[in-house]
User: What shape does this take?
Amino acid sequence: MSAILLLSCPDQKGLVASISNFISENNGNIISLNEHVDLDEKMFFIRVQWETNNFEIENTELTVKFKPLAEKFNAKWRIEFTEHKSKLAIFVSKYNHALQEILWRNKLGEYNAEIACIISNHNDLENLANSYCIPFYCFSITDENKKLNEEKEIELLKNLEIDVIVLARYMQILSPEFVSQFPYKIINIHHSFLPAFMGGNPYKQAFIRGVKMIGATSHFVTNDLDEGPIIAQDIIRISHKDSVKDLVRKGRDLERLVLAKALHLHLEHRVLVQKGKTIVFE
Amino acid sequence: MSAILLLSCPDQKGLVASISNFISENNGNIISLNEHVDLDEKMFFIRVQWETNNFEIENTELTVKFKPLAEKFNAKWRIEFTEHKSKLAIFVSKYNHALQEILWRNKLGEYNAEIACIISNHNDLENLANSYCIPFYCFSITDENKKLNEEKEIELLKNLEIDVIVLARYMQILSPEFVSQFPYKIINIHHSFLPAFMGGNPYKQAFIRGVKMIGATSHFVTNDLDEGPIIAQDIIRISHKDSVKDLVRKGRDLERLVLAKALHLHLEHRVLVQKGKTIVFE
Amino acid sequence: MSAILLLSCPDQKGLVASISNFISENNGNIISLNEHVDLDEKMFFIRVQWETNNFEIENTELTVKFKPLAEKFNAKWRIEFTEHKSKLAIFVSKYNHALQEILWRNKLGEYNAEIACIISNHNDLENLANSYCIPFYCFSITDENKKLNEEKEIELLKNLEIDVIVLARYMQILSPEFVSQFPYKIINIHHSFLPAFMGGNPYKQAFIRGVKMIGATSHFVTNDLDEGPIIAQDIIRISHKDSVKDLVRKGRDLERLVLAKALHLHLEHRVLVQKGKTIVFE
Amino acid sequence: MSAILLLSCPDQKGLVASISNFISENNGNIISLNEHVDLDEKMFFIRVQWETNNFEIENTELTVKFKPLAEKFNAKWRIEFTEHKSKLAIFVSKYNHALQEILWRNKLGEYNAEIACIISNHNDLENLANSYCIPFYCFSITDENKKLNEEKEIELLKNLEIDVIVLARYMQILSPEFVSQFPYKIINIHHSFLPAFMGGNPYKQAFIRGVKMIGATSHFVTNDLDEGPIIAQDIIRISHKDSVKDLVRKGRDLERLVLAKALHLHLEHRVLVQKGKTIVFE
Assistant: This one.
């Protein structure tokens, strides 16, 4: 079992010493430490993970005990514990590939997570959810019922104490009200190498432009469509032989892998956000 | 020695048979054949290369002899001969890396080309040109003299019978009048994965957006800035640790390699243009 | 509907003309043609695909009608028809990832194939087979029963008219007698970038050697273990942070994708074998 | 200006705290910290870099002052200063590409290094050395004079206080006596993805095996040929169309980039060696 501190603050002398002293004085053993100093912004970022087996502070006390130090540094911070499995909600529409990938990986034990529910605006993937014994909720979204249905979704997600929302090719745009309830907790996969081909039908856009590679981008959802902080990206090569249909087929593999990777990073608490960008401590 | 036919026309039955019969009836031996049918556009594209050692049509007669067939197909076409070294003009400004790469590769024999001149709007790279014994011309461009100087450049390029113009990080925008003189004969390198980050300072744009990879794109120059047909693209991964200066350093490698590859493809006559996109017969 | 000719023979003048004439004279329309001349070995290879809708030779007559031409060239050749779905047998042991990937892709329609049976030396994956309604056969292999059980497997595969056998992380070595029944019809996935790390436990070997990337290789099975003709390979980057367990996890993604790609190429009849190597007409 | 500590020792509680306290108590500001715990081997590795502008220990005193702490941990360690430009010796034979690449990059300021000499067993690259004003020494190696000439080389390298020896496609095998003088200070580039294709003519080996990608590997030289700790590797895709000559051409680009990257990592003091493998703190 271990604890993970994610912290950012204005850069100053003695930060690593103070934090590592706090851990070692309480008999913790650091097993992983990543640090980044942004010399332009004069900001300090750290992810430190330590074994809590003989740690002298109880998990339940840790936040209170660490708070004075964090306040001294004027830090934004949080502490996560590996014994807590993150609770996921996966939003889908009709495509099954991104959902399938996450279900497989979680079953194989790749994620420290529990998939608490699958939410869709269509019924198509209900059987897939059932085959993994995961509760499936369908909220059919129209212009008229959107506000009401989102409120129901928020209530459901809050009741289930969801930590992370994954948009696994969910074809609806979430309202600002919805997004504001889950800051930097909603991860989307967009099927282009953003910022190229924002918006609808990026494979068609890519085909028309004649690019020699297509990409996929996983990012946190903010209220600026396709403009949230990027967590992971990848590309594959294409050629003039590929039709739009080929791009869709080839792109599926990218979408699956890039979303899976971004989720893995987030579930291991390796991603910090700063000014619309991410620091990813791989 | 060999001949290369590049041809595109509306798709119809018997095209490959007609073309390959023409070659074999005149005792040519095909050593490479690439073909593409665009089923949506109902267009046919071919690149076929054959040995001319025992070919019964002289190079000088070949165009005349092939013309009736091409007209029957309503084709756009050209024939190239490997004994002709393409004559290159390289345009540069102050950065030396892309120029250096091409000079070095050509000296190693990677290109079937002769670098006939280097043209710049600055004097910085004159010594490098001299060290390879290549004539260097400086045309300092201002708003006032641009038209006049471009006319002089065009005259020089025409006199030298230039086949290909390479913009090796040339920091001036060529006028439509200039570009129209050399349709699909001007190759540029842009330091982003187009269409992302068009225009100026793409590394800065990439840094601000927080992408996880940067790219480079080599394309034919048209009058739409950074929108010409793409010949080659590649990317490398970056992280939050990379400053803009790091991106510039890492991007140099990409720029060199992507431009070198696009030029290689073009000098081997492997690139056809159709509706703002390329067919690249690798 | 279309026909695909795969042919190799000693290089000689007029090959493309003869083949394309045969097609066009019988009113076939070529939609794809790939050709390769090995100048060292003086060998010619071709894959040509043409629409058979108005083709004047019936599929059942085509082999007989084409034979004289092929004999004239002293060619090795075969003709495939896209209306025939290849019949697959998938061999597995305990790992499910490669099997799952193929089942899922086939269901999505990526392959022109029917999965006729899944054969295993363990029962672990029977439920997965059942969930896709595919017959599952378990042949538990011991030193004593191997010969007998392989004979039973061969009989089953012959009865089912299997075209392609996929070893989706099957942990038994097939005997030469078995392999000889299915020349270049058995595709394996090996979890290293062959020829590095042949034999058992390649991830452990990779970890010990301290390589900075791991790979996967899909190849035809011959009687030389891990030395059959390579169809597809890919790699991913790793670092000192990765344990053997991490390599297994990361490698799974590679194994799935590389096997899936090799199978895709084979099912589209894009792979020819020559002297222990493949020509892959992508 | 900054100092860089590279340290490894048996893992124990309080290591990061002790080291960071040492720095902050002497008024140093950490700008980069990488750490790795090998849980299997119970070993701890760290690279920490701090600004020395206001640091209260002089560079010349730092080793003495840090020693007690290092001894307490039973550590292997060294401290480097960014104001020291590493002195390089580059060994070459006849190929110019790897040398050219390093010369270019150093001139562009990519390396914190001074190229003190170029040593060769042939005269071919003397002009290139001269054009960069770098002393060139030719030691023609035969079986008879090898011992004597290597002694002369060692003397020269010691006199020049060389920090790093780069084998930029040097075609001689260094004797164990030579290698033992420069432990983990000699960097080689091998033109394959090791451990595949060790020894001579790896491109030919790759061609014969029919791999679908070729690689390059940069590693520290030890007395086991091509088996030293790997620093960097990369690959590119090839196909059946590529002759051995094509592999040589394409491989050159890989060799250049992989060697350049490994050298960059080493010159930034980011590489630690442990049990025949490297920890690379990128």
